[in-house]
Amino acid sequence: MDREIVWLSKGTPSTLTYKGKEFKSGIAKNQVTELKVMSKGIIGDDVENHDFHGGSERVICVYAYEHYGFWEKLYQTVLPKAAFGENLTLTGMTEKDVCVGDIFQIGDAIVQVSQGRFPCSTINKYTNIHTLLNKIIERGHTGYFFRVLEEGVIYSNSSIKLLEKHSEEISISTIHHTYFHEKNNIKRIESILSLDVLSDEWMIRMKKLHKSLVEKSI
User: Fold this and answer.
1) With the C-alpha atoms ordered 20, 11, 25, 96, is the resulting torsion angle positive or negative?
2) Domains (ranges, CATH) in the chain?
3) H or E stretch covering 137
4) pTM attached to this predicted model
5) Distance between CA 11 and CA 42 in Å, rounded?
6) pLDDT at 42
7) What torsion, rounded to 10 degrees, do the Cα atoms 99, 119, 189, 62 define?
8) Which residues contact 144 (CB under 8 A, 6 or more apart)?
9) Which of 18, 145, 157, 188 could form a disulfide with 58 if both were Cys (CB 3.0 to 4.6 A apart)?
10) In contact, 25 and 135? CB cutoff 8 Å
C-alpha cells in the first residue's frame, strides 16, 4: 500500500469524562490541514503528563490507518478520527513496515522513527472500550513516534518519502513482540540493544529485561 496521509491532528489537554469521572488528557485531537513541526514539539499540540508523554524522542505520534478497520470490525463500532491520539494517521506504514532509525521526509520536515508507543489505559477511557489496551498489546497495534531531524511544515497533502532505511532493519513490531511476548529471547534483545538510534526510554526497558535474563542464568 502506498504511503499516504489520511489525517493530520493536534490538540492540547482537555477535560474528558469516563464512567462519570473527569480526567485530563491530550488524547483528543482536532483534524487540521498542517502541522508545524519543531525539534521539541508540534506547535499547538501538547500532552498532559510530561513524565510519560512528549519530549524530543516523541514529537510526532503516528498510527496506521489500516488498524482502524480491524478495531471497528472487532468491536462493532465506529472510532473517532485520531482515536489513538496520533498526530499522523498514515497508510502503508504499520509497525511491521517501519524500523527504528528509518528516516522519512514528510512535507518540509525530515523525521526519524525513534520508538514504539508504550500504550496506556487512557485509550480505554477515551474510546470507552475497556479491553482495547490489552488487545493493543496482544496485537502490537501500538503506533510509534518520530523524532525531528529537520523542522518544517507537514500539510495534509504532503508526500511521504523514505530517505534512508536503517541498516539493522529492526521493526517496531519486532521490538514490541520481543518486550511483551518473547521476553526470553536474549539474542533478539541484544540486537535491539545495539540500536544506538533507539530512544532512551526503550533502551532502559530493554536493558532491564536483558539484566533480568542474565541474572537468571547465573
Assistant:
1) positive
2) 4-167 (2.40.33.20)
3) helix 132-139
4) 0.94
5) 10
6) 97
7) 10
8) 61, 62, 95, 98, 113, 114, 115, 116, 117, 172
9) 145
10) no
Look at 52-56, 71-75, 154-158, 187-191 and tell me which has the smallest mean pLDDT. Answer: 52-56
DSSP label of 171: B
Q: Give residue 33's region: left, alpha or beta (phi > 0; psi -120 to 50).
A: alpha
Residues 171 and 195: beta-carbon distance below 8 Å: no
What is the rounded distance in angstroms from the CA atom of residue 113 to the CA atom of residue 62?
Answer: 10
Please list the residues that pair with 146 across neighbouring strands: 60, 113
Length of the chain: 218
The reported pLDDT for the residue numbered 146 is 98
Q: What DSSP string describes 61-116?
A: EEEETHHHHHHHHHHTS-PPTTTT--SEEEES--TTT-BTT-EEEETTEEEEEEEE
Average pLDDT over every residue of 167-193: 97
Amino acid, res. 34: E
- Dihedral angle, C-alpha 166, 171, 108, 36, nearest 10 °: -140
Give 28's contacts (C-beta < 8 A, 6+ positions apart): 11, 14, 16, 85, 126
Asked if 84 contacts 135 with a C-beta cutoff of 8 angstroms, the reply is no
DSSP letter (8 states) at residue 206: H
Which three cell numbers, joined as nine digits, stand for 105? 521526509
